[in-house]
Amino acid sequence: MRKGFSLLTALVFLVLIATISALSISLSTQSVKQTTDIFLKNQAELLLRSGTEFAMLAMSGHEYNATINPTCLNTLNMTYNGTHDINVTISYIGSGLPAGCITLDNNISTRESNRTVIIDTWVRTKDDILTEPIVMHRRSIQKP
Predict the structure, then answer these.
(1) CA angle, 51 as apex, 47 and 57 as ends, to 5°?
(2) How far apart are CA 104 and CA 135, in angstroms?
(3) Phi then psi dihedrals of residue 33, to 5 deg
(4) 3-state secondary structure at position 73
(5) How many other C-beta atoms lie within 10 A of the C-beta of residue 63?
(6) 3-state secondary structure of 10
(7) What pTM was computed for the model?
(8) Residue 114 C-beta-side C-alpha neighbours within 13 Å
(9) 36 Cβ neighbours under 8 A, 6+ residues apart
């Protein structure tokens, strides 16, 4: 009777240790996934801001008021480090804008509001990076 009871106690102890081990492995893999998700989310937030600022810089290289061949910057598509796609769409508000611009309103009467832009910035993680992709959007009104 004692040997049977010892064998039963040993089996219960082994099952208990196996359950605790499986739980600790599960929790450790979840914390690694959470750390990766938090890092990529913070990186996407920084890329939103950087994408908007880069669009402002890129717009300064286009001549809107040129008499010969005026140009507008409408979209920017970038990839960061193979992990994030950054897509920027620029819409213009003003008067006398060139025909090639994405124009929301071309009849603004105030001089101060002329050539105001609305910048939509989208940041997405690549599909093969995470099982649940991170998608972030930022819309800002800028005056270049």
Answers:
(1) 145
(2) 25
(3) -65, -40
(4) coil
(5) 13
(6) helix
(7) 0.75
(8) 11
(9) 130
**Bridge partners of residue 12, in order along the sequence:** none
Tokens read off for 34: 């959470």
pLDDT-based confidence at residue 69 (cuts at 50, 70, 90): low
pLDDT digits (tens, 9 = 90+) for 32-66: 788 888 999 999 999 999 999 999 999 888 776 66
- 144 CB neighbour count, 10 Å cutoff: 17
Which residue is it, tokens 């990186």? 43
Residue 48 in tokens: 């939103």
Nearby residues of 63 by Cβ (< 8 Å), 6 or more positions away: 70, 71
Burial of 94: CB neighbours in 10 Å, binned 0-12, 13-18, 19+: buried
**How far apart (Å, rounded) are the C-alpha atoms in residues 89 and 59?**
12
Question: Checking DSSP bridges between strand 135-142 and strand 103-105, what pairing results, if any?
Answer: unpaired
75: which 2 tokens? 């979209």
Contacts with 137 (C-beta within 8 Å, 6 or more apart), sequence order: 48, 120, 121, 122, 123
